[in-house]
Amino acid sequence: MSNQTDPFKAGPSAAYPPPVDRLLNELAKLPGIGRRSAERLAFHVLKSAPADAAALAESIRDVKKLVRHCGICFNFTDSEVCSICADPRRDASTVLVVEQPRDLIAIESTGMYRGVYHVLMGRLSPLDGVGPDDLTIGDLMARIGDSSRNARSVEVAEVVLGMNPTLEGDGTALHLAEALASTSVKVSRLARGLPSGGQLDLASKAVLADAIEGRRSVG
After folding, report:
1. Domain contains 179
2. pLDDT tens column, 61-105
3. In this structure, is residue 2 part of a structural domain?
4. Distances (CA, A) of 170 to 59, 88, 152
5. Is 191 helix (H, G, I), strand (E, B) or coil?
6. Sequence-distant (≥ 6) Cβ neighbours of residue 43 within 8 angstroms
7. Each residue of 102-140: pLDDT tens digit?
8. Which domain holds residue 180?
């Protein structure tokens, strides 16, 4: 019986040096990046000047080292309080609740909203095991109950529900509306200018602007 190795049998690839192979594997873990895209990115890094590659590595390191969640709204920031919560020109009595920081960025791009935010860091999804305790709902209720927990210690007068118009988003909005019913704050919701089943970060600026302008009370 021959002990010769089958040259076509799958096994560890030796096409790349180990450092390149490690880079490919890490890049391929990124969302939307397959093996081919990872190879293109890796080759770009290989062809880049050492200073450019070092700058990329340093920026990734700084993001993980310096960026944190705002102590008030849970937006990303490199300080204790984000620039939106600290801005005296913003109406801190109106809090727009969104699912993720990218939704906040999408709304900010319209330039139509001048209040502050609260980022839930997700949405209710029983099938995925995501319940109220896994989101920042408790922190939102604390902001409403204690003005010192809100931006610039301003009392919250209105909460705008800005969940994505999906089944899970609607369920999260309903849960929040029920929780807020026992408070004195006005509760409104972004108008249905947003398409059902869509995502805030994929909507156009015009659609988002109409949704903000046309928000309505809940209940």
Report:
1. yes
2. 999 999 999 999 999 999 999 999 999 999 999 999 999 999 999
3. no
4. 37, 32, 30
5. coil
6. none
7. 999 999 999 999 999 999 999 999 999 999 999 999 999
8. 90-217
132, 187, 161, 172: CA torsion to nearest 10:
30
Contact indicator for 159, 97 with CB cutoff of 8 Å? yes
Q: Is the dihedral of CA 195, 85, 108, 94 positive or negative?
A: positive
Euclidean distance between CA atoms 168 and 123, whole angstroms: 6
Question: With contact defined as beta carbons under 8 Å apart, do 212 and 190 qualify?
Answer: yes
CA dist list (Å): 88 to 93, 108, 153, 168, 199 = 12, 16, 11, 34, 30
Contact status, residue 156 vs residue 93, Cβ threshold 8 Å: yes
The predicted model scores a pTM of 0.78
Domain count, the chain: 2
Q: What is the spatial distance between Cα 33 and Cα 117, in angstroms, rounded to a whole number?
A: 31
- Could you write out the DSSP letters of every residue in 107-152? HHTTT---EEEEE-SS--BGGGTB-GGGTTHHHHHHHHH-GGGSGG
Asked whether residue 106 is assigned to any structural domain, the reply reads yes
